[in-house]
Amino acid sequence: MDSSADDLHTAPAAALRESERGFWRSKGMKRFRRNPLAIAGTIIVIVYILIAVFAPQLTYFQLKTIRNTCVRDLGLSVDSTQKIVEPWTGTFWRSIVAPPSSCFTIPRASYSSVPAPASGKLWLGATSGGYDIYYGLVWGTRSAFYVGILVVGFGMLMGALVGAVAGYAGGWVDNVLMRFVDVVLSMPNLVIAIVIVTILGQSLTHVMIAIAAVQWAPYSRILRGDIMAIKERDFVDGARALGARGPRVVLRHILPNSLGPLLVIASLDIGAIVLTAAALSFLGLGAPVGYADWGQMISFARDWIKGPPGQPFAYWFVSAWPGLVIVVFVLGWNLLGDAVRDVLDVRS
Amino acid sequence: MFLGVTLIIVLLMQLLSPAERASTYITSPAQLQHIDVVIKQYGLDKPWYNQYWRWISGALHGNLGYSRVAKMSVAQAIETRFPNTVTLALAALLPIVGVGIWMGTAAALNRDKIVDQISRVVAIVGWSLPTFVLGIWLLVIFYGGLDWFQPGQLTVADSIRLSNMTAGGTFHNYTGFLVIDSLVNGQFGIFLDVIWHLILPVITLSAVTSAQIMRVMRSSLLDALGQDYVRTARSKGLSERVVNNKHARRNALIPVLTVSGFTIILLFNGVVITETIFSYPGMGSWLANAATQLDYASVLGGAVFTAVVVVFANLVVDVLYALVDPRIRYD
To answer: Does A70 contact B at CB distance below 8 Å?
Structure first.
């Protein structure tokens, strides 16, 4: 069974069907490349991905001067810290691929109770408690992608399971599962997440569980529709005629054919997922204090809305930088997502 | 739908220990001393379906437990806070409908002209401003910097005056909606104060949604303007205004309503964050506070109530469908 040819045919999008002409020269991609907003969105997202990947290198200066236990946990001494920026060392790659969890702890320049403006050591200033804003934002990008990718992955797994069972089994199983999906989708996801985090306890892992608990629902619905359509196709009958049983038909023949489009849709959700996670952290339901996380960075600003008398904007940096990082991130995903949906739109 | 939501919530509660679950049944601080009695009394060590039945019959009688955060019963807390949230949400509908539909229409009718370009920029910017960032930024500028607006629902002076009047019996809470009650009681100053305090939260809450509605309105109106029935109406000699308003716009509103169904749910997310930022005494800030202080009774009660409201709001959208689209009839 040549599955690669079928991959292309079962994709719901007309644009994908054209990929025999070469992906880059297909009509959809041409439109994508001619759309300046799409290009801008792509560039923004790529920049954020690069920031997340090279977070250890981008914060080399902070690791060396302000210091947290990250350097020590990488097995480096004060003198060998520079290994982090030397690509020929193992430490360089280790810091990128598997940094110790202590690297996500924002180093504290001081224990001051008021925010400190930018200075030589503090590129963007520090929040109250001396947490370095620049470090928090760079490593926060990494933890944002970490949350986004894990939630999408888990959501897809769960969605694929429920969708596959519902789509293949049909009948009352399908009915019960899809009503359940309706219920999940009818509630505001932040409220569900708040309930779940309250019951499980506050931590970043629980935030991810809480978001994934809602995120799988739309995926299962999409996959169910795909499976119902694919189920009727000849090659599935063929597989069944050859003696393949239900689970094998679903896993080997149906799922590989319908996962592609779902993967595209799901990965575009990363932007929204990161935003929900940040919102939960902002409300004080996410990561512990001092963990590099965008929502927490901007929640520091809640205590520093007003400056001291006479200097109303004295603490502007506490809210401006984290806010800017989040807004540009959302903008990038929105532009990219919009353009991709445009390309995948069957009508056009 | 309601049964589904409550069932899921009660099943989730099984993850808690009986003592923690007991907190939903406690209606006064005194009962906290005798947790064991409460657990026995309400059968919290019994299987889940027993508990579900007990809980739902309690909920239907308005007994949702005691809220530690609000220092009153959950039902009372909802009663005092819900009108404030409704006021905020309805006030946010004004810019959503006004800016969203009006600007979307203007953009589509003047395609590629200056209005359209401006609306596109506004849409992209508004759409990318997360509620919690926009809210904080507005507060920093207009409260921290300029001191034009303050968080909360009333200025300190006005809220003291209000509580004195309520205690003295000269201010009556007829509806629970402060906007209406202040007018009925002839307290025009308080009315203005409430409206003034609504401005920033409303901008915060409506930014993303307005932008979304505007985009949908623009594209669906452009779609409708290209349809045959619009050309027919034009060729019949109808004026441009009648064609646009009666023929094109009415049809273009249908996709907008579909999107509104989703945006209502988004609006609830926004309410939680907006109210927290502006310390606005509504359901959202209460829920968020309760969650950070592990006040299970409030979180569960609030969530169930939210579910009811969402179901009701979707019902309203369905009715609006029928009003806009005469092809849809509910028997």
So the answer is: no
* A126: β partners: A116, A132
Cα gap B8→A124, rounded to integer Å: 45
pLDDT band at residue B41 using 50, 70 and 90 as cut-offs: low
pLDDT, tens digit, 9 for 90 and up, residues A158-207: 988 898 888 888 788 888 888 888 888 878 888 888 888 888 888 888 89
From the list B136, B144, B265, which residue is nearest A188 (CB)?
B265
ipTM above 0.90, yes or no: no
Nearest CA-CA partner of A162 in A101, A213, A94: A213
Q: Do B306 and A182 touch (CB under 8 A)?
A: no
Chain B contact present for A275, CB below 8 A: yes
**CA B274 – CA B281 distance, rounded (Å):** 11
Instruction: With CA atoms as reference, report the closest residue to A136 among A330, A287, A18, A31.
Output: A287
What Å distances lie between residue B268 and A257, B14, B316, CA to CA? 37, 26, 16
Quick check: B6 and B302 in contact, CB under 8 A? no
Angstrom distance (rounded) from CA A313 to CA A307: 6
Which parts of chain A register pLDDT below 70?
1-25, 345-348
User: Residues B4-27: what's their mean pLDDT?
Assistant: 66
Nearest of B197, B128, B125 to residue B156 by alpha carbon: B197
What is the pLDDT, as a whole number, of residue A1? Answer: 38
- Residue A108: strand pairing partners: A131
Query: What's the rounded Cα separation, in Å, for the pair A130 and A113?
Result: 8
Residue B215 near residue B107, CB atoms below 8 Å = no
Among A115, A158, A135, which Cα is nearest to A55's? A135
Segment 304-343 of chain A within 8 Å of chain B by CB? 305-307, 312-313, 315-316, 319-320, 322-323, 326-327, 330-331, 334-335
Quote the CA–CA distance of B41 and A230 in Å, as a whole number. Answer: 54
How confident is the model at residue B39, as a pLDDT?
67
Report the alpha-carbon distance of residue B12 to residue B5 in Å, rounded: 11
Q: Summarize pLDDT for B89-110 with one digit per residue, the tens.
A: 888 888 888 888 888 888 888 8
Q: Give the separation between CA A91 and CA A107, rounded to whole angstroms.
A: 20
Which residue is it, tokens 């792509």?
A: A42
Cβ-proximal residues to A69 (8 Å cutoff; 6+ apart), any chain: A100, A102, A105
pTM above 0.90, yes or no: no
pLDDT at B299: 84
Cα separations in angstroms, B159 against B139, B162, B191: 20, 5, 12
The answer to whether residues B171 and B232 touch, using CB atoms and an 8 Å cutoff, is: no
